[in-house]
Amino acid sequence: MKLRSSETFWPLKSAMKYSYPSIDADLETEILIIGAGITGALIAYKLISEGKKVILVDRRDVANGSTAASTALLQYEIDVPLHELIKLRGLECAVDSYTNGKKAIFDLRTIIDTIKSDCQFEFKKSIYYCSLKKDIPFLRNEYKCRKEHGFDVNWLERWHLEKMGLNAIAAIESKTAAVMDPYKFANDLIHYCKKKGMLVYDRTNITSIQNQKGKTIAHTEDKFTITADHVIHCTGYESTETITEKIVDLKSTFVIASESQEVLPTAFKNAVFWDTSHPYLYFRVTRDNRIVMGGGDEEFKDAIKRDKLLPKKEQYLLRHFKRKFPNINFKLDYSWAGTFGETKDGLPYFGKQDPNKNEHYVLGFGGNGITFSVIAMNSILDSINDKKNADLEYYRFGR
Q1: What is the reported pLDDT for 367?
Q2: Which tens digit of pLDDT belongs to each residue from 4-19?
Q3: Rounded Cα gap, residues 141 and 162, in angstroms
Q4: Residue 279 and residue 324: Cα distance in Å, rounded?
Q5: How do beta strands 206-212 and 54-57 pair?
Q6: Which of 78, 113, 130, 293 has the fewest Cβ atoms within 10 angstroms?
Q7: Facing residues of 265 across strands?
Q8: Helices (H), the chain
Q9: Between 369-376 and 91-115, two packed helices, what is the crossing angle to 10 degrees?
């Protein structure tokens, strides 16, 4: 017997510590940020810290898009390995992207401490492993490349991995990675910015944007307008609705989470794991000893088709977990699916798509969306002020 459909109000009300109104009048501001997920929150934090007047809007409840589905593995490693990224984008861009990703994890911790967010941030090691002998040369090349360019990595043999309970052949161990609760952090950060003067409106859908006499006018579904000097799009995968350039391949991805376990091996808890297969599988542990595993990507974005696959993907992920960690019991508790995307070089897109419009984008596609968004904080002011910036060149449109 199905007693109710979807979610009722009360559980959602209890889960949402902060609530915000929708827009009910025409507004003016210096900067309008569209997208109140973790990216919009970080950009807002930067701009509020610089004394800017900011309005933040989202078509959903705050942080209820991709942020709510993120598994929040924070790594400096990019979906494209360093030795391949050097070939694609050159030495400087590749090494800087990896280096800045590492710095972003520590910058994120500083922000968390500043706003006093209890988002369960924890530093971890990152274990990038292979399960097939044919992948060992690839992994060796990546290890040597990272060593050559100053990254603190170790080579692990099978017996090292067996001590972690991992059934794999070899791995690269990186010293810098982390995990956190992205939904909690985004909500805390937005609330912090609101206390500093930012206006926040959810359930506010922007349907069109006009550029008139140096001003940018955003029109809402309810026929109100927000007039701003600059608009910053932090809309993630939904940016494909407003961008004409083909910049990302959208896919479907799947995640499962276990019941909370009384005991997990310390080595397993102290690391995040991901493999050399494409698309890769990844594993992490939450503070309350739940195991989160993701992967099984499919080359389509149809939500109905994606969600119908979820029961099958649950079993797929469970089988792969058992093969990799045969001594750990994974009791399924939650599962979900979402839209995912990859760019041709694994890197984000920052800045203006059209140099004649004051519309800016911060699009951190791929598995590094959060760290990319932290990196974007360092270039958003230069984008607004039309100043040159290395990141704006690395991650420009039309590259």
Answers
A1: 87
A2: 445 556 666 667 788 8
A3: 23
A4: 16
A5: unpaired
A6: 113
A7: none
A8: 9-15, 38-49, 66-69, 82-89, 91-115, 136-148, 158-163, 182-195, 266-269, 303-308, 310-324, 369-376, 380-384, 390-394
A9: 90
